[in-house]
Each structure stands twice: as C-alpha cells, then as structure tokens.
Design goal:
The structure is a single chain. The protein is built from 7 helices and 19 strands. The protein is α+β, with helices and mostly antiparallel strands. It has 2 domains: about 5-120 and about 260-280, Probable inorganic polyphosphate/atp-NAD kinase, domain 1 (Rossmann fold), CATH 3.40.50; about 125-255, Tumour Suppressor Smad4 (Sandwich). The strands form 3 sheets. Strands 1, 2, 3, 4, 5, 6 and 19 form a 7-stranded mixed beta sheet that branches. A 6-stranded antiparallel beta sheet has the order 8-7-18-15-10-11. A hairpin with a 2-residue loop joins strand 7 and strand 8. Helix 1 (about 15-30) runs parallel beside helix 5. It is globular and about 60 Å long.
C-alpha cells in the first residue's frame, strides 16, 4: 500500500480524532492519504478529488463514517474494484470493517494488505417513461418504491422475467441485494441472506393481503414493477439516499449490475459473527 484514498463523514462525532490517528499512522508507514473533495474542503487541504478518480489511482479507500457513508461511496464508485475499508463512526456498521475501538489494529492490517475481500452485488435500476429511460442508478442495499406522506396504499404490479407475479396493495416494495437483506427488507419482514448468495429479495411493505410475503429470485432475473393505481406521490428510493418521483405508467426495471464492489474486512471476519453481534443474538436460555 502506497496511496490510499480517504473519505470522511464530516458530520460524525469523533471524526477529527479518528482522522488524526489515520494521518499519523500513515505518516509513520510512509503512506500517502488522498482526500475526496468533501474531506479536503473540511480539513482545508486543497480541492481534493472525486471518489471515482481516487479509485483509479489509489490502492484502497478508507471510509470514516457508517453504513450510510459506504452506501454513498459505493454508488459513486460505480463498480470499481478498489477495496473499501470502512471504520464505523455510526450506529450499526454492518458494512464497515472495524469499530473505532479497533482502529489501530485495523489500519495496520490494511497497510500490510492483511485483509479479506468481500465482493458485494449492486442493484441496477432504471425507470422507463413512454419508451424513454428517464432515470438510471445503481445501489448497494436496495431499490424501494414507497408512498409519500399520505397514508394510503398503492397498487404495484410486479413481473419476473416478463412473467406476472402479483399486484400488491401495500405501502411499497423493496428490491434488495443480499447485502441489503439486513437493512430495510429485514425490518419489513424479509429473510436474511448471506452476502455471497446470487439472489434478489422482493419484499412488500405492509401488504394488505396477509399471504403476501417476500420472494427470493435468481440474480439473473429482470424484475419490473409499475404503479397500477396512484392517488398520491410515489417515490423510487435508492439506498435511502437518492429519490426519484414516479408517475403512473412508469416501468421500474430492477436487476443485478454486471460489476460489483469489494468491501475490505478484517482477517478474522465472519458474517455470522457480525449477525450475532449486531442483532444481539444470544441463543436460547432453555
């Protein structure tokens, strides 16, 4: 490791202390840290570079923040294979490599190249309106169709590989990657899926029919959804951060992107160990 990109969530508490440790450790190891534009502006160190530009010249990318910061970075990387090494300054931290309490050890592992790579699928989303693509994005966790502020169900027609699945009367639909199975989909009653699984999870949000449950389909599937009945604003939301207003008749296409991203993990990383820790699983007392 000689050149490492640096992205800091400037709104997180303790970010300055963590940044100081990163800079000092890198200086001792003679490693150059290159900030992105927002980080450079925050520390007053030049103009910085785009995340995508950093991925083209750096050996790895340190992200100081939480899952939300990594979700943003993953979309900006757009399929780059640079290792993303997250240090958790947030709450849950499913996507990060290490907590702040293990910062020193984590940096040594990264700088020595002593880490695992966990490839993660990206969801590819496009909206077609009157035979024209009007919106196109990728996401790491999920694409969500959901109603606006008015508390009324929407009717969403869903097909899998052009075969009709159902018309859902619900608050919305979640189309999650395996990585996103621990996020909104889980909160809506969807299954937990290991990151290496080749699937997409389709989960209705508060469906009116009790028989409507999550459906797990192959990652080679093309899922298409359209609003059948709309009496209010309906949004398409990517990773809880990028929002697009849908209209009746819009066709939302969801599939797995050709390129993935690489999350860097500590050498002793265990997905199931993370589940036990983050979800507070303690086992049976019987």
């Amino acid at each position: 490791m000689k050149n490492i990109g640096l992205v800091v969530n400037t709104e997180k508490p303790k970010n300055q202390q963590v940044l100081d440790v990163c800079c000092e450790t890198a200086r001792v190891r003679r490693i150059t840290l290159w900030p992105d534009r927002a980080t450079a502006a925050w520390v007053g160190r030049g103009k910085g570079r785009s995340v995508k530009s950093l991925s083209e010249t750096c050996d790895a990318l340190i992200v100081l923040g939480g899952d939300g910061t990594i979700l943003r970075v993953a979309r900006e990387l757009n399929g780059s294979q640079i290792p993303i090494f997250g240090v958790n300054l947030g709450n849950l931290g499913f996507l990060t490599a290490a907590p702040v309490s293990a910062l020193g050890q984590a940096l040594e592992c990264l700088f020595d190249g002593n880490f695992k790579l966990s490839p993660r699928s990206l969801v590819d989303v496009k909206v077609t309106r009157k035979n024209k693509v009007v919106y196109k994005r990728i996401g790491l966790n999920e694409a969500v169709i959901n109603r606006g502020e008015v508390s009324r169900n929407v009717k969403i027609s869903v097909t899998i590989n052009k075969e009709f699945l159902s018309v859902y009367s619900c608050d919305g639909m979640i189309f999650a990657t395996p990585t996103g199975s621990t996020a909104y989909s889980l909160a809506a009653g969807g299954p937990l899926v290991s990151p290496e699984s080749k699937v997409i999870v389709v989960t209705p949000i508060c469906p009116h029919a009790l028989s409507n449950r999550s459906v797990v389909v192959s990652d080679t599937s093309l899922i298409e959804a359209s609003i059948v009945q709309q009496t209010q604003k309906v949004n398409l939301n990517i990773d809880g951060q990028d929002i697009f207003l849908l209209k009746t008749g819009d066709l939302v296409g969801v599939s797995i992107a050709k390129a993935n991203i690489q999350l860097a993990k500590m050498p002793d990383y265990s997905y199931y160990g993370v589940l036990r820790q983050k979800l507070n699983w303690s086992g049976s007392n019987v």
